[in-house]
Amino acid sequence: MSCSIGLTLCESLQSTSPAYGGLDKLKEYCLNRLPRQLERWSVMLGDKPFMTGNDVTVADLKVYDTFRKLKIYCADPQIASNPFQAHPTLQAFISRVEELPQMKTYMESDAYIARPLNNPHANFK
User: Fold this and answer.
1) If you average pLDDT over residues 58-77, what whole number do you get?
2) CA distance 67 to 73
3) Is the pTM of the predicted complex or chain greater than 0.85?
4) d(CA 103, CA 112)
5) CA-CA distances (angstroms) from residue 1 to 5, 45, 50, 103?
6) Are 102 and 96 a contacting pair, CB within 8 Å?
7) Largest CA distance in the chain
């Protein structure tokens, strides 16, 4: 992995940061910075089912959680963006994680909390 890809991956994993800077910063992130970051994620995933290969790892779960939050941010009516649409491999990755038997059971349980996404003092929850 090249340095530029690695740094961008780390940066996008800090996806909650824009939620603390107000809607304008979050909108700018979703419309301008995120599409470039998703392109790099797409390259990293390639044709593998999971980020590191054929088997799911804890890293995939972190990436999935980040993507889930980003999709919610971007779908907000005041932002109205869908940068994942341009990346069918990332959408398929999200679906694969959600279809894992343990994940599916968890997401259907009372223990699953879809929101809030961030701490109480975030501007976007």
Assistant:
1) 88
2) 10
3) no
4) 10
5) 7, 11, 16, 28
6) no
7) 41
